[in-house]
Sequence to fold (271 residues):
Amino acid sequence: MNILISNDDGVFAPGILAAKQAVEDLANVYVVAPDKNNSSVGRRITLFKHLKLESCELEDGSEAFSVSGTPADAVIVGVDYVMDEKPDLVITGINQGVNISCDITSSGTVCAALEAVSLGIPAIATSLFVDPKTSFKQDENGEWYVDFDFTLAKKVLHDLVLKIMDKGFPKGVDLFNLNVPSNYTSEEVEITHLSDMMLKKMVIDNTDKEKKDLFNYSLDDNQKSDDLVMITSDLVQEYEEGSDGYALLVDRCPSLTPLNANMTYQELKDW
Fold:
């Protein structure tokens, strides 16, 4: 079995190495990913422009390839150029952040998996929901860092690929969207549906006193801000039972959402 792994966090992100480690005992693994972070770019593709493709080395000493493009670009380059034959499966992630609800269409991780599906390859998009209450820690010098614990995510991804190797994808399912919480209370995987929304989005400007620090954080020195706005977001906290958000935030267990790339709604005869 040949597996292509990509992501949207960049080729040197810890999650892509975790994904490789999760399945490298099951298949021949190829890693092709963007050369830098491409979060929230959706399925953007770079057409008729040059992309730089470079061989690089992951932390475990294995070879990977970086692409100066988007996650979808990386999947296309991996499938059509780097690999000698089409992969049997594409895995994207493990993303350092949650990807749930109908907001997944903005996710570079999920849309890279959708690009694989468009190329005739089944896919798994994998994400780690990082709980800020437990994952942000301080080192001996008092510096804050994020502790990405991929242990359960790697185990669930490994077991899912094993099941796919044994039984294939369920009929009508093109890809799985897997989300695993870092603060889990149960390792049991729930089969879920998409929530309506993951992020509550708001637009702020320089008159917003409550979010002043956030608005000014990325401004250059002496940069004028009168004509600037910023889109901000907060994670939705309430979800319908049976949804991906409910599994992650309420049940605190892994969520597996089966998806079909064809968004057509079939029945309109009574409309």
